[in-house]
Automatic annotation (TrEMBL):
It comes from Streptomyces nanshensis. It holds the Pfam family DUF4232. Residues 1-26 form the signal peptide. This is DUF4232 domain-containing protein. Residues 23-90, 177-205 are annotated as: Disordered. The keyword Signal applies. Keywords: Signal. Residues 44-62 have a biased composition (Low complexity). Residues 23-36 have a biased composition (Polar residues). Residues 91-221 form the DUF4232 domain. The keyword Signal applies.
Length: 230
């Protein structure tokens, strides 16, 4: 093969490889629309599309005693210098407060809204699924298996000071084969939460009762507002 033709072929292959890699960056499954801005009123809207969940890519964070988690745990979206192109910083663990709002129970199923509130004095951005770890009153870890639901697409959010974003949690209270033989499932005291693209965790009181199913919790991506997402 002539040297000129060989160089042309190598250049074409390199270009094709670059295109393939660029489509696999973190957050490539997310909506490409511009970020939704959430203010302190807690209002927001979302749409529902598709069905099913992706348990194969579920986050199962196990924070260490110092509140950190393995690299990449609970993360969705790109990790850069903490700034969006518009100059809005990524929401850090320190800039967020977390609370849990139990929803209406239904036939062995339980629901709750995990609410992240921007407690800082400036806007910040977030996107994706939080990481979770249930703990006992003494701080011991309770089995926690987070399954990321993907029937609602992840979307970029910008939280104004006092603004909220929430993720719907779903779990069962019906004992299964992997639960204690006496049928008494763990009743967590606290949930440790790792915001998207962070490593440090923060905590919220768990006042939502027992968690059966070996600690499996279905988690939807963060959406605007503090109410339980549909």
């Amino acid at each position: 093969m002539a040297p000129h033709h060989a160089r042309s072929l190598l250049a074409a292959l390199a270009l094709g490889a670059a295109v393939t890699v660029s489509g696999c960056t973190a957050g490539s499954d997310s909506s490409s629309n511009s970020p939704a801005t959430v203010d302190g009123s807690g209002s927001g809207s979302h749409s529902k599309s598709g069905s099913g969940s992706d348990s194969g890519s579920a986050a199962s964070p196990h924070p260490s005693d110092d509140g950190s988690a393995p690299k990449g745990t609970g993360a969705q979206g790109s990790k850069d210098d903490g700034r969006a192109p518009s100059g809005v910083r990524w929401c850090t663990t320190k800039s967020l407060s977390v609370s849990l709002r139990p929803g209406q129970p239904a036939a062995g199923n339980r629901y709750a809204a995990l609410v992240l509130t921007n407690s800082s004095s400036s806007a910040c951005r977030t996107q994706g699924w939080p990481g979770l770890q249930l703990t006992s009153e003494s701080g011991g870890k309770i089995p926690t298996d987070v399954v990321r639901e993907r029937d609602v697409p992840s979307r970029p959010l910008t939280l104004s000071p006092g603004g909220h974003a929430s993720a719907r949690l779903h779990w069962t209270v019906v004992p299964g084969k992997d639960d204690p033989s006496d049928g008494r499932c763990p009743d967590p005291h606290t949930v440790r939460v790792i915001p998207p693209d962070q490593r440090a965790s923060t905590s919220a009181a768990w006042k939502a009762g027992e968690v059966c199913g070996a600690g499996e919790i279905d988690v939807r991506p963060l959406l605007p507002g503090a109410d339980l997402p549909e």
